[in-house]
Specification:
With 150 residues, the protein is mostly helical. It is built from seven helices and three strands, in the order H-H-E-H-H-E-E-H-H-H. Strands 1-3-2 form a three-stranded antiparallel sheet. Helix 2 crosses helix 4 and helix 3 crosses helix 4.
Length: 150
């Protein structure tokens, strides 16, 4: 008979460490690609967060920063013609951020240029890709919940 491999179930701490390491490596790849287009990682992340029109305050929540910081980020995106601010139909005091066609093109280029991330995903089998997607889809809603202080 063949040998039986024993698998140790990772602890929460071990899962957190590996998830953090994957996230950090992804973020570094993303930031490097964004920089090649003259954008900070926050500006590029904002482009990704406004695939559909988003109020400024909601964008701040998505980016995990103060609303005052979002103003500078959106100012830069507007100056580059990658996004626009529009008044909300129901309340003109509320500003909505909308990505432009050029902004979508830049975001797609950034994502396309993330060589290390593409290399890692392309090395996976179809079954591994399906499993990773399924696991992330289960974990993300819990992690993405907004709540109290952290």
């Amino acid at each position: 008979m063949g040998s039986t491999a024993t698998t140790t179930v990772p602890t929460n701490a071990e899962l957190m460490e590996v998830l953090a390491a994957v996230g950090a490596a992804y973020f570094q790849d993303f930031a490097a690609a964004a920089a090649r287009h003259g954008l900070s990682s926050s500006q590029a992340k904002a482009l990704g967060a406004v695939q559909e029109p988003v109020p400024m305050r909601a964008l701040a929540g998505r980016l995990g920063c103060d609303a005052s910081n979002v103003t500078g980020i959106v100012d830069r995106l507007e100056s580059l013609r990658l996004a626009n601010r529009e008044a909300a139909a129901g309340d003109r005091r509320v500003k909505i951020v909308v990505i432009t066609a050029e902004g979508r093109e830049i975001l797609n280029s950034i994502r396309g240029e993330m060589a290390r991330t593409h290399q890692a995903f392309e090395a996976m089998t179809d079954e591994q890709r399906i499993a990773l997607h399924s696991i992330c889809s289960q974990v993300l809603p819990v992690l993405a919940r907004t709540g109290g202080a952290q």
